[in-house]
Design a protein that fits this description.
about 0% helix, about 80 residues, flat
Length: about 80
């Protein structure tokens, strides 16, 4: 298993994931350029699986997807 990390132009981590035989495997995390977490998801043999969670640029939880089924969307009122 090989670990990959990419960075935004400002030096903040952009994406971190693992690959086996050229395919994403396991946890994948993506960050916005401001450093807030954007997405956490999982891959099995290069295909999305399991749970996927998303946050907006302010760090507020946005939505979750379970094996391709969108289970919840969160709305915030200011």
């Amino acid at each position: 298993m090989k670990k990959y990390i990419s960075y935004h132009n400002n030096g903040i981590k952009h994406e971190e994931f693992y690959q086996i035989d050229g395919k994403k495997e396991g946890k994948c995390t993506v960050w916005y350029a401001n450093g807030e977490k954007e997405l956490v998801g999982y891959f099995k043999k290069g295909k999305p699986c399991n749970i996927w969670m998303n946050w907006d640029e302010n760090g507020c939880y946005d939505w979750v997807d379970m094996d391709g089924v969108w289970t919840k969307e969160i709305f915030y009122f200011k």
